[in-house]
Amino acid sequence: LQAKVFVTRRLPIELEPLRSLATVEVWPERQPPPYEILLEKVKEIDGLLCLLTDQIDRQLIDSGKLKVISQMAVGYDNIDITAATTRQIPVGNTPGVLTDATADFAWALLMAAARRVVEADRFTRAGLWQTWEPDLLLGPNVTGATLGIVGFGRIGQAIARRAKGFEMQILYTSRQRCSPELEQSLGVEFATLEHLLQKSDFVTLHTPSVDDTYHLISDRQFELMKRSAILINTARGNIVDPDSLYRALASCQIAAAIDVTEPEPIPSDSLLLTLDNLIIAPHIGSASRQTRSKMATMAIANLIAGLRGDRLANCVNPEVYN
Ligand code: GLV
Ligand code: GLV
User: What value of ipTM does the predicted structure carry?
Assistant: First the structure.
């Protein structure tokens, strides 16, 4: 009997290697499959390839007999990992291949916010460019500024490497301090979150979304920041309390550039959309052609390994192999 898999969206690669091994159904719409549909599908499949927009909770996991869940993303906060582990279902993700693309995009947001690129474009298109002005659209220096990196995994470290070229002072905070050798080669200094927020001209978030990072940046943290600080979020929306973000931006403390929101997509009546000192992108941190194709290839490889009963090359719950 051939294995059956469900792929929750069209992917930017050929699915032939998978089709030779399994009956493949691909959700054809632009919007994610509704939860009820996923719940029906999961009853008849062996493998699920999902995206961060699919809610893979305990009820869903318990409703089927999945052999593998393969997520095309590095983050997996949409999946109940504990429920999957209880049922011995390996969950795959796609780390590494999106590190540079995401760090590049965080850098693009940082530069855009500092030098007001989006406002400048709006200004020009509105026909407001009438002459060269000494004080038009001024922003802070990036070169030589102090950068605070919150979360120092692969992406956080990739940010540090870029910051070095801009001669920045680099502070980082993370659950675990890294080795003195790594700190030295990256030119970074460990700090508490509090100290980092007080000292940084730019604060960029690179932690996963877990219980400990839920609304990590709220009123108190915004109060600690310099009034001129710029916050960058390319990690997960719920690391920042959106109401606190609105208050901090509306009082013209700080500016921000975010690629992720809580919830996603951002509601069309969100007050955040009314602010000039905020840049918002639609969760495209990993969206380089090469990276998206590598992520899809990796997700397919994890899916195939799981169907075959082989160990996934990238498994977030390796306990299932104990
Ligand atoms: C994107 O946000 C990812 O987690 O890969
Ligand atoms: C993700 O790739 C991270 O570990 O930062």
Answer: 0.74
Please tell me whether residues 252 and 130 are part of one structural domain: yes
- What is the number of domains present in the chain? 2
Question: 82 is written with which tokens?
Answer: 């504990």
- 279-285: average pLDDT: 98
Question: To test the ligand 2 pocket, which listed residue (76, 104, 152, 155) has its Cβ within 8 A of the most ligand atoms?
Answer: 155
Does 153 lie in the same domain as 237? yes
Share of the chain above pLDDT 90, in %: 98
By residue range, what is the domain housing residue 162?
A: 99-280
Mean pLDDT of 261-280: 97
Pocket lining: 295 vs ligand 2, CB cutoff 6 Å: no
Cβ(145) – ligand 2 distance below 6 Å = no
Same domain membership, residue 295 and residue 268: no
Q: Are 238 and 110 in the same domain? A: yes
Q: Do residues 30 and 58 both lie within one domain?
A: yes
For residue 127, what pLDDT is reported?
98
Judge if 124 and 246 occupy the same domain: yes
Atom of ligand 1 nearest to the CA of 235: 2
- The bound ligand whose nearest atom lies closest to the alpha carbon of 71 is 1
Beta strand extents in the chain (DSSP E only): 3-7, 22-26, 47-50, 68-71, 91-92, 146-150, 169-173, 188-190, 202-205, 230-233, 255-258, 278-280
Q: Round the average pLDDT of the chain to a whole number and report it.
A: 97
Measured CA to CA in angstroms, residue 226 lies from 132, 162, 200, 201, 239 at distances of: 30, 23, 7, 7, 19
pLDDT tens for each residue of 157-166? 999 999 999 9
Same domain assignment for residues 87 and 113: no
The β-bridge relationship of strands 202-205 and 230-233 is parallel
Name the residue of 94, 97, 154, 186 to mutate for ligand 2: max ligand atoms within 8 A of Cβ: 154
Residue 46, pLDDT > 80, answer: yes
Instruction: Judge if 269 and 126 occupy the same domain.
Output: yes
